[in-house]
Amino acid sequence: KNILIVPGDGIGQEVTEVGKNVLVKIAEKFGHEFIYDEALMGHVAIEATGNPLPDETLEKMRNSDAILFGAVGHPKYDNDPTAKVRPEQGLLKMRKELGLYANLRPIKLFDELLGASSIKPEILKGSDILFFRELTGDIYFGEKGRKNDNNTAYDIAEYSRYEVERIGRKAFEAARTRGKRLMSVDKANVLETSRLWREVIQALAPEYPDIEVEHQFVDSAAMLLIKDPRRFDVVVTANLFGDILTDEASQIAGSMGMLASASVGDSTGVYEPIHGSAHDITGKGIANPLASVLSAALLLDISFGLKEESDAIIAAVDKLLKDGFRTKDIADASTPAHLLLNTQSAG
Amino acid sequence: KNILIVPGDGIGQEVTEVGKNVLVKIAEKFGHEFIYDEALMGHVAIEATGNPLPDETLEKMRNSDAILFGAVGHPKYDNDPTAKVRPEQGLLKMRKELGLYANLRPIKLFDELLGASSIKPEILKGSDILFFRELTGDIYFGEKGRKNDNNTAYDIAEYSRYEVERIGRKAFEAARTRGKRLMSVDKANVLETSRLWREVIQALAPEYPDIEVEHQFVDSAAMLLIKDPRRFDVVVTANLFGDILTDEASQIAGSMGMLASASVGDSTGVYEPIHGSAHDITGKGIANPLASVLSAALLLDISFGLKEESDAIIAAVDKLLKDGFRTKDIADASTPAHLLLNTQSAG
Ligand SMILES: CC(C)[C@H](C(=O)O)[C@@H](O)C(=O)O
Ligand SMILES: CC(C)[C@H](C(=O)O)[C@@H](O)C(=O)O
């Protein structure tokens, strides 16, 4: 099995190294042979080649069985909205070129971190959500540009029935293996793309009579996530709404530093933390590497079908937390100094 | 002064009556003469005239000095994404026709309700946010439709410099009267409309050197709202992002039932609860009318410049809460039955 390591920018470098080490240990322990290669993407790729997703990287990605990915981004582009070449272009191009239309974001709270969230423990306890975010359509990939002498900007959101149906089916099927409830989130009272979205999900529902389907408007869903997170089981939604809701939902798990995601579709899969490159903490050794470690667990489970190996990683993370170890983002006033980890020792 | 009362649908009817009664009492007490008229909008208007915003209603709106509005919507349209006439069309048309480009949503926590939120009191305490949501542009009002034999849907998001600048200025000016911090929320790493948005806000900043400006991506802002609500003072954002973030932020105040909004622009202003028509609780007498009461307070302050009268309403709400009275949405296990109010008695 070929695994491509793409650390990307900022803390992506630090945490992906830890995630990779965990894969190496698991291979040793369970007697697997994984072959690793590495490639550049994002700001570091722009610096080296002028291109945020060099052809060589894309080629290696296509030839991989799975990709462990870090993060891309750099503050210098954020403050310059007119920059023509941007790290995120590489990310979006990767998603499109590899056909990664389904982004799975499990939001699961480790019991030990019940106190780490801003949300009250009695509201949170038992929350367990699996988001299916559509990843290759919507306003991310439609035509965009300027007109009227550069004085008007536009972005086109677009969805086809086919695109909604394939992510919808994945979500319905996942609901079968879990709590049998599916929430579809849209803005069908305003958007035509959302009305198509709702039509397609409604048309699929009779094929999954064992699944209870609920439709929510995105504004209401954003509110309910905080008010009543246990109401959510599997959620399926469009690219932009999924981006917003999953970041919000990270607060259910206490920290973005705990959350992994899987992007799958036609061939290889990409596994990555949901956090970004976080240049403000880069190089300080304080980044929480567990999201990358849990990404490695998702990789083994989803792309390689190695459930036991995946569970072993999750159990190790659980034990680490039970033993009281914490990185800064999930520590609190009661964490003793000798249990405060830096990125490498946590790995 | 002419005040038009537009209760709309569902609990809009119940709560707006209470809001109006408060205006009547205030006029009596402070010796003002307000002239009231009433008009239909939403589902009730469709039933009566076939049109969610009848010409007669629009005409009355144009001739008013301010409008106290309830809510529009009906579940029957939500489950039928193909319905051609929808209550929300009336709402959107009203915003566009009256030029209500600035939607102000103050998120202020009454001390007495510190415990009513799902968020921990120590995180919430002292939160005080004022959102400026752009209300007549973005993906709400661009062209939308179907193509490819009805198999593809699209929505166009659009912003002009002029549109961003006028809402931006309102937000900068409000920041001056408050904590002097402005957060502009966009998705400039993906959307062209957001890149224009950021350019315009950046260009305005030097004119307001006393205001500290921060740019956040919408996904990050959705996360920070829960993690650290005190980080927010004035927020300015586009129509769709504002819709999502303000509903989410309602959880800071404990309940949507406590939050009022003002939509202002070229002429008359519209004052309304941020909650919807809530047909699930309509007619039960349990709706919290305080959002409408606080909308009346905003109306007096913003459209009529009657600050003392407005403050008197807010003080009365505060006293009601201090005396322990609660509607169901803000009650908890410790609320004694005799302090549990229904909609009318709360008013
Ligand atoms: C970096 C950005 C383009 C990206 C997105 O919006 O998809 C990120 O927020 C994510 O969620 O992976
Ligand atoms: C009803 C709906 C069209 C509306 C909106 O999205 O603007 C509502 O959610 C609001 O926030 O006023």
From TrEMBL, chains A, B:
Pfam families associated with the record: Iso_dh
From the UniProt record, list the coiled-coil ranges.
none
Localization per Swiss-Prot or TrEMBL = Cytoplasm
InterPro entries per the record? IsoCit/isopropylmalate_DH_CS, IsoPropMal-DH-like_dom, Isopropylmalate_DH
Cellular component (GO) terms are: cytosol
Q: Which domain of life is it from?
A: Bacteria
One example GO MF annotation: NAD binding
* Cofactor binding remark: Binds 1 Mg(2+) or Mn(2+) ion per subunit.
Q: Reaction catalysed by this chain?
A: (2R,3S)-3-isopropylmalate + NAD(+) = 4-methyl-2-oxopentanoate + CO2 + NADH
The residues listed in the UniProt record as binding Mg(2+), with positions renumbered to this chain, are: 219, 243, 247
A single Gene Ontology biological process assigned to it is:
L-leucine biosynthetic process
Quote the record's binding site residues for substrate: 95, 105, 133, 219
- What are the residue positions of the site described as Important for catalysis? 140, 187
Gene3D superfamilies hit by this protein: Isopropylmalate Dehydrogenase (3.40.718.10)
Q: Pathway, per Swiss-Prot/TrEMBL?
A: Amino-acid biosynthesis; L-leucine biosynthesis; L-leucine from 3-methyl-2-oxobutanoate: step 3/4
Enzyme Commission identifier(s): 1.1.1.85
Please indicate if the UniProt record lists Lyase as a keyword: no
- The residue ranges of the Isopropylmalate dehydrogenase-like domain are 2-347
Broad class of where this protein is predominantly found: cytoplasm
Q: What's the family?
A: Belongs to the isocitrate and isopropylmalate dehydrogenases family. LeuB type 1 subfamily.
Kindly state the subunit structure of this protein: Homodimer.
Q: What is this protein called?
A: 3-isopropylmalate dehydrogenase
Q: Organism source for this protein?
A: Dyadobacter fanqingshengii
At the highest ranks, the source species' classification is:
Bacteria, Pseudomonadati, Bacteroidota, Cytophagia, Cytophagales
Task: Give the gene symbol.
Answer: leuB
